[in-house]
Amino acid sequence: MKLLLHCCCAPCSVSCIGSLRAEQTEPHLFWYNPNIHPYTEYKSRKDCLNEFAKSEKLSLTAVDEYGLREFLNEIHSQNSDSISHPQRCKKCYRMRLEKTASFAKQEGFSAFSTTLLISPYQEHEEIKRSGEEAAEKYGVEFLYRDFRPLFREGQTNARAANMYMQKYCGCVFSEEERYSASH
């Protein structure tokens, strides 16, 4: 199988890639994350993924477009309720997985998946639904895996490898929620 793996960050990629390799699948990594803000956070995550891909001898395609305006336009489209947690996450997943599916189709991949499926903090069923919808739209298979049981092991391995470890999902809204909740 020729698999395109959307990667949100290197730490979330570690166990996903290990699991796929155990299935004899060598993924091609794909970076497209217009949701990650501020720019310094975006750059730290992208640079860490680049280093990880090199160390693991993995191919990586990076759509290196800092997407502040694109992300905010998408989140604010349609109605003011879209800024709420479930609605903004749904739009964010759709945005990233549609771009991944489109690229997979364009470049001849037989399937795509995402490292978002490893996080116990993400809306798992919504990620799955967004992946399946993108698959149908672009005519390429969405490879679903519930990587969540591998989350803690992956985080431990990422720390041991001295990877950059983020403190929030990536969007400016989650950053606000993370830091305002701690006060």
How would you summarize this macromolecular structure in one to three sentences?
The protein has helices at residues 10-22, 39-55, 68-76, 85-107, 124-138, 151-160, 172-181; strands spanning 3-6, 28-31, 60-62, 111-114, 141-142. It is an alpha/beta fold. The radius of gyration is 15 Å and the shape is globular.
| CATH class descriptor | Alpha Beta
Mean pLDDT: 91
Beta-strand percentage range: 5-15%
Instruction: Count the domains.
Output: 1
* Helical percentage: 40-55%
Low-confidence stretches: none
CATH topology: Rossmann fold
Helix count?
7
Question: What is the terminal-to-terminal distance?
Answer: 48 Å
In order across it, which strands form the biggest sheet?
Answer: 3-2-1-4-5
In one word, what is the shape? globular
Whole-number radius of gyration?
15 Å
Total number of strands: 5
CATH architecture classification: 3-Layer(aba) Sandwich
What does this protein look like?
By secondary structure, the protein is α/β, with parallel strands linked by helices. It has a single domain, classed as Rossmann fold (3-Layer(aba) Sandwich). 53% of the residues lie in helices and 9% in strands. It contains seven helices and five strands, in the order E-H-E-H-E-H-H-E-H-E-H-H. It has helices at 10-22, 39-55, 68-76, 85-107, 124-138, 151-160, 172-181; strands at residues 3-6, 28-31, 60-62, 111-114, 141-142. A five-stranded parallel β-sheet has the order 3-2-1-4-5, with helices on both faces. Helix 5 (124-138) links the parallel strand 4 and strand 5. Helix 1 packs across helix 6 (151-160) and helix 4 packs parallel to helix 5. It is globular. The relative contact order is 0.21. The model has no long low-confidence stretch (mean pLDDT 91).
